[in-house]
Amino acid sequence: MTPARPPFWRNVKVLRAVIQIIALVGVGLVVYVLFFNVTNNLRARGIRTDFEFLDQPFGVRIAGSDLSPGAPVRAALINGVKNTLALTVVGLPLLTILGVLVGVGRLSANWLVSKVATVYVEILRNLPPLLLIVFAFQGVILRLPPARSPATPFGWFVISNLETHVPGFRAGAGYAAFISAVGLALAIGAFVWWWRTRVQQETGAPHHRWAWSLGLVAVVGVIAYLVIGRPVTITLPVLTGRVVDGGFRGLGAFFAVMGALVLYTSSHVAEIVRGSIQAVPKGQTEAASALALSGFQRLRFVVLPQALRVALPPMINQYLNYVKNTSLAIVVGFAEVTLIAFQAIGNGQPAPQVIITLMAAYLMFSLVISLIINVFNRRLRVVTR
Amino acid sequence: MTIAAPRRRWVKKNLFGGVWSSLVTIGLGLAIGYVAFVLIRFLATADFTILRRNLALFMVGSFPRPELWRVAVAVLILAVAAGVAGGLINASARLRAHQAGLPVPAPPGPRSLVNGFRRYWPLALLIAVCLLLTETVTPTILVLGAIGILVASSWALARLPYSRWSWSLVVALPFVAYLVLSSSGLGWDKWGGFMLNIFLTVAGILFAFPIGLSLALGRRSSLPIVRTFSVAYIELFRGVPLITLLLLGVFALRLFLPSQLNPSSVTRILVAITIFEAAYIAEVIRGGLQSLPTGQVEAASSLGLSTWKTTRLIVLPQALRATIPAMVGQFISLFKDTTLVAAVGLSDMLNTSSIATSQPEFNARGLARITLPFVALAFWAGSYTMSREARRLERRLGIGER
Question: Mean pLDDT in chain A?
Fold first, then answer.
């Protein structure tokens, strides 16, 4: 006997379908109403509803760039993305190093070190990042010497409240050849690394991967440098009158934003590092001691690889937070992508489209970073399990 | 000598345990000495007139001065609410211990005053600094009155017979405080300063909670369309910075609404914060849902409970309890993020700093180095207290039942 079918209002399949249709219609309705309103409102104000504004002139000179005010909004936005990228590329390694140092410091056997690290974390973690940026700008950068009489410590730097010049390098003739030679050496170095690892795994002989690969890259680099004949020269910033020559230049606002965010984010990273080292069971360290591994070896081969696995997901979050927080540079006038969008709206470009473009840019940024780290994450898991 | 020996051993072991350790200790010691010197010199020589003159501005923004009594009354009402909540927590803990046959802890006595001070010392520090900066005696009376009311109501509630319904008082009193503040046309658009930061945090979490809860349940749902929408919402708004949403709120929200609706700037910001925060709260709640053993749901369905009943009676009570520490963390992070409204022109406490330093009397004298540390102290005291409380809760919840 087949069981009687339940009435349709008790039938799970029907119910599921109905709920989903309701959800679909509801969300569709909300989206439609929003879209309907925005197109109507824009039309009523005589504003275009497409993305044509990207080709309109931006209309403002961007501090620290060669872009003319007549350049299209598109170019200005791309410039902003580049500045966001610059903040990220310089900031992420710095905050990682600082965070790991402080995090390990909190676990130090030295009482003073662990106390100082604790105070560092508890102060910075509980301050609004925006306040740190404003303070770094108004309290530090703006109190530097004015641009007409900058400070030149050691003759290596030229520092004023407008911008800071640091030693840099300049490409000479044969630069491309030199870079490709080094790139080739790096590729071969990676291969040598893999080869030495295999030799160790198969024969048990010491691998010396670092010495082999780095040595190879260094030797090739030096030979290429000598053969091509000074393809790269190091330049120090030189102040003549009011003009600074050579070196790399960074705006004061750049250093304020980067410094403040590196300090802020490193305090969070320190907590992650501490937590994940503590998450490694004590028996692991004890077992490593029983195998007569040295203190460094215990850390390098036993504790850190396991801690890293715990630390990686929250670290991704912190990196993403850092990228998102670079948008706070808007308050000190550093021309990253949010400030550009803000200025574009101020110049009469249609706000909804500008903001949607801005959000899309950040989403892409977030997506790319999480993709990169997810690949790394997967690799880590495969190797250890 | 006999006392000094273990101490000396401690110093040798923990500060001078080796060559490197000794060098680091000396270096750090010198650095700490220098920082302390700079700090003391700052506190001794700086002129805090700008803070004295503008204390009310920092706290309540441009709230009309003749109406300040409303703020005072609201503070007193909130003190009652806090006291009642504290007393009820104590009473319910004792009731539970009594029912379980465990030794019943004593109701709060004079000792708990000292404990409370120790537990909330960052807040006490902030209040003390504010009182030092006042020019009249009224704020001191208000603070002492609020503390008195808080202590009295918590002691009373801890001693009265426990009733679940007393919690409705804790819920209702903040609304009364809100009504006192906002009646006679002083709605939240007129608020500013620290009050605005606190309001945006509390209101943002309150409004975002139901949305976040539905998104979290939607993300765990087995219905593909519901799940897709939830995931899309959460990932979209977690992927963009809050400031882009604030810009949306300020410049574009009006365009998305029918033209009859014309919300004020604080309301628009609040909408933006709610949209943003809902995505984060959803992830916090999802964490709680995931921490629940599957056996709970299986047991519920073997009892014949419907999906809805399982969620309401079995899943949520346990999952939400597990999310409390993370929720406090989210609260802290929003509290810090409310400073962002300064970037879009609302006069919150951070923006008040630049309003104060551009007053003709204080203009162009580099006084941000006085006002910003004060703002920093306020935010630090709030966040640090909450993060300590979150850690306490985490320990209690962790040890208690699991």
Answer: 85
